[in-house]
Specification:
Length: 438
C-alpha cells in the first residue's frame, strides 16, 4: 500500500485496509482484530474473556451422568476470577500463578502425551473462456455465500450441515486465536514434517478456515503453490501471489489434476465423518515422496492432580459435548487414532508427537502459561459455537438452559484452581517413492 501519511491525530482512511487483510507473513489485520505472534487486540478495547455470574453459595453442583441435563437449580460456586486484558507475555507473567507445571513439549518423544462482477474489457478467446469455465469453482457461486443463520449465528451454506461450527466473524476471530495457540504449542512452528522446503511446489491446507495457515506457509515457501480448501469463502482477498483458496468439501471426491508435495490437515475434530477415507484421499493425491501432516485434538478435558472432578459443571459439559458429537458422527477426539490410520493408508516414516495443551494460565512455565491463556480465551468465546448444534438438536437442551450452563462453566474455567488440559496430536508420514501419482 502507498499514500501520504495522515496528519498527527488523524487515522488513515478505513478503505486502506480490507476485511481480513494480511500485511506480512507475521501479522494479520482485520477490520476488528489485530493478531500477532505475541499480542491479541480488539479495536477500542482489550480482548477480554467472557465474564458470567460469579456469585452464589459455596456448595458445588451435583454430578450427573453423560446425556442427562445439568442441574441448573444449583447455585454458582464462587471462585477466584482471573481478569485478563491484552495478551502479552508480560501480562501473563504478572499472573505469577505458582501451580503444578506441565512438561515442555519434547519433539524427540513419540507416542506419548507430554506433556467475493464487472465485465473484463480484455475478454478471453472462446477456448480460453471454456477453459476458465472448466476451472470455475464453487467459490464464486452466490449459493455459497448465502449463509444461513440459526440461533443468532451464521453457518456455512455450501454442504449445509456438514460442519457443526459457525463461520461468522466471532468464529473467525476464535479460529485465529486457535492458530496462535497451536503455533505456540509447537514452539512457533507451523508444522513438524521434515519437508524439503527448497523443492516443495504444491501444498494443500485442508479445512483452511480463515486462511492464516495457508498464507503463512505461502510466505515461508514462496516457490510453492499453496491451496487452502474450506466450506466457506471467508478468507482474505489480499494474499501472497502463490496462495489461493477454494470452496470444496474434503469429504467429497477429490478432483485435482495434479499431486501435492505436502498436505496438512489441522483442527478437523468434530468436522469429519469418515477419517480413514480422508487419510486415504491424502495418500492418493500426494506425489511419491511427499508428506502428509495431521494436527488434531482429543477434546476430552483431563487433569493430573484431581482438580477437575465429577462435581464440576465443566466436566459434565465436556462429557455431554463428546457424547453429542459422537451421536452425529463427528469425532471430537481423532488425535489418538491418527497414527494407526496414517500407517494403515500406506505411509512410511510415520511419527507422532503428543502435547498437553493447558486450559488457563495455571502452569508455571511462561510459554505454556501463554498457551493456556490463548486456549482459555478461545474456549470462553467458543462455548456457544461448540454447543448450539449439539446440545439443542441432539441432547434436547433449550437455548435458555444453555445460557445458564455457559454462566456456570465460565465461572469455573476462570478459576485458577482447575489444572486442566487436553491433548494435541501431530502425526506425519511420507508416501513411498514407488506409489501414487507420477
Amino acid at each position: 500500500m502507498s499514500g501520504s501519511t495522515p496528519p498527527l491525530g488523524e487515522s488513515p482512511p478505513i478503505s486502506v485496509l480490507t476485511d481480513r487483510t494480511v500485511l506480512t507473513d507475521r501479522t494479520v489485520l482485520t477490520d476488528r482484530t489485530v493478531l500477532t505472534d505475541r499480542t491479541v487486540f480488539s479495536t477500542g478495547t482489550s480482548l477480554t474473556a467472557w465474564s458470567g455470574p460469579t456469585t452464589g453459595s459455596t456448595s458445588p453442583p451435583k454430578s450427573s451422568s453423560a446425556g442427562e441435563k445439568l442441574n441448573l437449580e444449583e447455585p454458582i460456586t464462587e471462585e477466584p476470577i482471573i481478569e485478563e486484558s491484552i495478551i502479552e507475555e508480560s501480562n501473563i507473567e504478572e499472573l505469577n500463578i505458582e501451580e503444578p507445571d506441565i512438561d515442555e513439549p519434547n519433539l524427540e518423544e513419540t507416542s506419548k502425551a507430554n506433556s467475493h462482477i464487472e465485465a473484463d474489457s480484455h475478454a478471453p478467446s472462446d477456448d480460453e473462456f471454456v477453459l476458465q469455465m472448466d476451472r470455475f469453482t464453487a467459490s464464486l457461486t452466490s449459493s455459497v455465500r448465502d449463509f444461513p443463520v440459526e440461533n443468532g449465528r451464521q453457518y456455512h451454506a455450501y454442504r449445509r450441515g456438514a460442519y457443526m461450527f459457525p463461520n461468522d466473524d466471532r468464529e473467525l476471530d476464535r479460529l485465529d486465536t486457535v492458530h496462535l495457540m497451536i503455533k505456540s504449542s509447537l514452539g512457533g512452528e507451523m508444522f513438524l514434517a521434515p519437508i524439503d522446503r527448497q523443492n516443495v511446489r504444491t501444498v494443500l491446507d485442508i479445512g483452511t478456515g480463515t486462511g492464516v495457515l495457508a498464507i503463512e506457509i505461502g510466505d515461508l515457501l514462496p516457490d510453492a503453490e499453496v491451496i487452502g480448501c474450506d466450506l466457506s469463502p471467508v478468507q482474505p482477498c489480499w494474499v501472497p501471489p502463490n496462495v489461493r483458496f477454494e470452496v470444496d468439501d474434503v469429504e467429497s471426491t477429490w478432483t485435482y489434476d495434479f499431486g501435492f508435495d505436502y498436505i496438512i490437515s489441522r483442527y478437523m475434530a468434530c468436522s469429519i465423518a469418515d477419517w480413514p477415507a480422508l487419510v486415504g484421499n491424502t495418500f492418493e493425491n500426494l506425489n511419491p515422496g511427499g508428506w502428509v501432516e495431521f494436527q488434531d485434538f482429543d477434546l476430552e478435558f483431563r487433569t493430573d492432580d484431581g482438580t477437575l472432578t465429577d462435581e464440576h459443571f465443566t466436566k459434565k459439559y465436556v462429557d455431554d459435548f463428546l457424547l453429542g458429537a459422537e451421536r452425529i458422527n463427528r469425532d471430537p477426539r481423532p488425535g489418538p487414532k491418527l497414527r494407526p490410520m496414517v500407517e494403515a493408508a500406506g505411509y512410511t516414516n510415520v511419527q507422532e508427537f503428543v502435547f498437553k495443551v493447558p486450559v488457563g494460565p495455571w502452569p508455571k512455565n511462561v510459554d505454556l502459561k501463554r498457551v493456556g491463556m490463548l486456549n482459555l480465551l478461545q474456549i470462553l468465546e467458543g462455548l456457544e459455537a461448540f454447543s448450539l448444534k449439539v446440545f439443542i438438536p441432539v441432547l434436547g437442551y433449550t437455548r435458555e438452559e444453555l445460557e445458564l450452563v455457559f454462566s456456570r462453566i465460565r465461572s469455573e474455567l476462570k478459576s485458577s484452581k482447575l489444572h486442566i488440559y487436553f491433548k494435541f496430536y501431530v502425526v506425519y508420514g511420507q508416501k513411498p517413492l514407488e506409489g501414487g501419482r507420477e
